[in-house]
Amino acid sequence: MSENNGPIDPKQEERIRRAFKERDWNEIKSADSWAIFKVMSEFVEGFEKLAKIGPCVSVFGSARTPRDHKYYKMAEEIAAKLVRHGYGVITGGGPGIMEAGNKGAHSENGKSVGLNIVLPFEQFNNVYIDPDKLITFNYFFVRKVMFTKYAQGFIALPGGYGTLDELFEALTLIQTNKIGRFPIVLVGKEYWAGLVDWLKETMLAERNINVEDLDLFSIVDNPTDAVKVIDDFYSKYLLSPNY
């Protein structure tokens, strides 16, 4: 890892310079007011399209995972099993693990939700999303609200910064009692082992989390166990997906 950031892309440099530019009140008021309306419109569309989707599980994972990769196939199988067990599937709507999740749900004629995001690279919506359940966002924070507000569980397969962002958003909301203690499942013990070790050996050792916070997630290695965690959680409360 380099100690310096290296040369900055000209477009990024311009954005950085703009952040330091002084603006008058009218300019601020105009720009911020317009941004508020755009944010509101995304919330409204999300609430209207997702309010009646029923019990779903959000599936997180990398957009870069190729179709012949074991984790793509696992995500597809997990999603298909979730549908057979009565759940719909919510993904980020793009390629890779997200595509696999939507594909698995679609193959079983289950609800297949795609929360797409406008990005300069990687992200484009996959073809396995229900047409009436595809939403494209400009704002990550609005999109993350939809991931958590309408999910009764979370399954994270291997991914990058975006996957970690979504995973820790769910963990934080549960830890702080902002949402219910829904099940969170990490798939791929080998992939997640280093992160879990760091949580235990560094974060917990520094008392930045409590030992019970490590119980907020489960780690499994196959689709059957991933779905079993979700089923077992709700069986404790005598709840089924048609509640």
Automatic annotation (TrEMBL):
Could you tell me the keywords of this UniProt record?
Answer: Cytokinin biosynthesis, Hydrolase
A Pfam family (short name) is Lysine_decarbox
Give the enzyme's EC designation: 3.2.2.n1
Please write the reaction equations for the catalytic activity of this protein. Answer: AMP + H2O = D-ribose 5-phosphate + adenine
InterPro entries for the chain = LOG, LOG_fam, LOG_family_nucleotidases
Protein family according to the UniProt entry: Belongs to the LOG family.
**PANTHER family per record:** CYTOKININ RIBOSIDE 5'-MONOPHOSPHATE PHOSPHORIBOHYDROLASE, LYSINE DECARBOXYLASE-LIKE PROTEIN
> Mind telling me what this protein is named?
Cytokinin riboside 5'-monophosphate phosphoribohydrolase
